[in-house]
Design brief:
The chain is of the alpha+beta class. The chain is 23% helix and 36% strand. Bound molecules: adenosine-5'-diphosphate and magnesium ion. The site of magnesium ion has 2 residues, from helix 1. InterPro entries: AAA+_ATPase, ABC_transporter-like_ATP-bd, ABC_transporter-like_CS, ABC_transpr_MalK-like, ABC_transpr_MalK/UgpC-like, Mo/tungstate-bd_C_term_dom, NA-bd_OB-fold, OB_MalK-like.
C-alpha cells in the first residue's frame, strides 16, 4: 500500500493547458473518487498517475518516491479501464494470469494467485471460458482480476462500469466496495456519475475544467458544498436554485426570494448582493397554506415506489421536491411548501461561492 501526493500538477498539450496545478494528498489505503463533467480532466489526471501520460509540471509521489519520470511498470499501479481490453483467444484464467506470466512468475505461483483472485471475484467456475462467452459484468470482473493478482500498491479505475447496464452497475459497485474493504489498497476511481462517487469513496474530489473545486467526505460535499457548481453536481434530483437578494429586513439582514422574505441573524454578504438560493428536493415539505413559504403548481409526478418526486412550477421556474409515496396520493394541483431555514444554501450569484449565514 502507498500514499499518493500530487503537488502543483500541470498538464499541457502544446500550448493548451488542461490541468492547472492540482494539489492533493491521498492517504494509505484510502478510496478516493475523482468526479466531474466530461472533459474536466479526470482521465488525464489518472493517466498521469499511471505513467501513461507525461506530467508537464509539478511533483507526483507514490509512497516516498518521486515518480514523475518513472515508467508505468516501475510505479506498481494497476489500472482498470471502461473497455476491459481482454485477450479474446485466452481463457479467463490466462487473462488474469497474463501479467504474472510476463513478469516470469512460475506456473504454480500463477495458478495459485489466479485461483485466489478468481475466488474473491466469484470467477472460479468461469476460469476455462473465453471472454466471448462472458457477460459484460463477468468481463469487467476478469479485468479487475488481472489488476488484483499483481497486488499493486495502487488501483486506478477509469469509469470501469460505464459500459454495463444500470442493474449490473449497482451490483459491481457493491463488489468493488467489498474488494476494497478486503484488500485495503489505495484506490483512485474516476467517474462522471456522482452517485457512484458518493457511494464508493471515502473522499470525493470534484474536478471542473482542470481544477479541484472541492474535496471531502461524501456527506460533507452534500451538506456543505463550497460553491453552486458542487451543490448542483452532487445530489439527485438536483438541488433547486432560486434567484434572490440580500436585503435589509425589519430587524437585521434578510433574504428576498420566491416572493417572500426570510429574516436572518447574520450573513457574510452586503445588502444588495444578488444570490442564488439552493434548496434540496427533500428539504421542501408539504404544509398548510398559512404556514407555507410559497405555493407551487404540480406539473409531473415521478412515482418511484419508495418515494415520489414532484416537478412543480413556481412562476416560470421548475421546482423539484421529494415526498413520501403516500403523501403524493390525491395531491391537489396547487400545493403549499415550507422549508427549514437551516437547510438553505446561499451562493453569490456572480462568483457562485458559498455565503455563510445564520437564521
Ligand atoms: N491527447 C490530447 N491532446 C489534446 N487535448 C487533450 C488530449 N487528451 C485530452 N485532452 C483534453 O484535455 C481535457 C480533459 O480530458 P479528459 O481528461 O479526457 O477528461 P475527462 O476524463 O474528465 O472526460 C479535455 O478538454 C480534452 O479535450
Ligand atoms: Mg475520461
Amino acid at each position: 500500500m502507498a500514499q499518493i501526493s500530487l503537488e502543483k500538477i500541470v498538464k499541457r498539450y502544446g500550448t493548451v493547458e488542461t490541468i492547472h496545478g492540482v494539489d492533493l494528498e491521498i492517504g494509505n489505503g484510502e478510496f478516493v473518487a475523482f468526479v466531474g463533467p466530461s472533459g474536466c480532466g479526470k482521465s488525464t489526471m489518472l493517466r498521469m498517475i499511471a505513467g501513461l501520460e507525461d506530467i508537464t509540471g509539478g511533483r507526483l509521489k507514490i509512497g516516498d518516491a518521486l515518480v514523475n519520470d518513472v515508467e508505468p511498470r516501475g510505479r506498481d499501479v494497476a489500472m482498470v479501464f471502461q473497455d476491459y481490453a481482454l485477450y479474446p483467444h485466452m481463457t479467463v484464467g490466462q487473462n488474469i494470469g497474463f501479467g504474472l506470466k510476463m513478469r516470469g512468475e512460475k506456473p504454480e505461483v500463477i495458478r495459485e494467485k489466479v485461483a485466489e483472485a478468481a475466488g474473491i471475484l466469484q470467477l472460479t467456475d468461469l476460469l476455462d471460458r473465453r471472454p466471448g462467452q462472458l457477460s459484460g459484468g463477468q468481463r469487467q470482473r476478469v479485468a479487475m482480476g488481472r489488476a488484483i493478482v499483481r497486488k499493486p500498491k495502487v488501483f486506478l479505475f477509469d469509469e470501469p462500469l460505464s459500459n454495463l447496464d444500470a442493474k449490473l452497475r449497482v451490483e459491481m459497485r457493491t463488489q468493488i466496495k467489498r474488494l476494497h474493504r478486503m484488500l485495503r489498497t489505495t484506490t483512485i476511481y474516476v467517474t462522471h456519475d456522482q452517485v457512484e462517487a458518493m457511494t464508493l469513496a471515502d473522499r470525493v474530489v470534484v474536478l471542473r475544467k482542470g481544477e479541484i473545486v472541492q474535496h471531502g467526505r461524501p456527506l460533507e460535499l452534500y451538506e456543505r458544498p463550497n460553491c453552486r457548481f458542487v451543490a448542483e453536481f452532487i445530489g439527485s434530483p438536483q438541488m433547486n436554485i432560486l434567484p434572490g437578494e440580500v436585503i435589509a429586513g425589519d430587524r437585521g439582514p434578510a433574504l428576498s426570494f420566491a416572493g417572500g422574505v426570510i429574516a436572518l441573524d447574520h450573513i457574510t454578504a452586503a445588502r444588495g448582493t444578488k444570490v442564488d438560493i439552493g434548496l434540496r428536493p427533500e428539504h421542501l415539505l408539504l404544509s398548510l397554506p398559512h404556514e407555507a413559504d410559497f405555493s407551487v403548481e404540480v406539473d409531473v409526478l415521478e412515482e418511484l415506489g419508495s418515494d415520489t418526486v414532484a416537478i412543480c412550477m413556481l412562476g416560470g421556474r421548475e421546482i423539484t421536491m421529494r415526498m413520501g409515496a403516500g403523501d403524493a396520493l390525491d395531491l391537489p394541483k396547487v400545493i403549499h411548501l415550507r422549508f427549514d431555514r437551516k437547510k438553505l444554501h446561499v451562493f453569490d450569484a456572480q462568483s457562485g461561492a458559498r455565503i455563510e449565514f445564520t437564521a
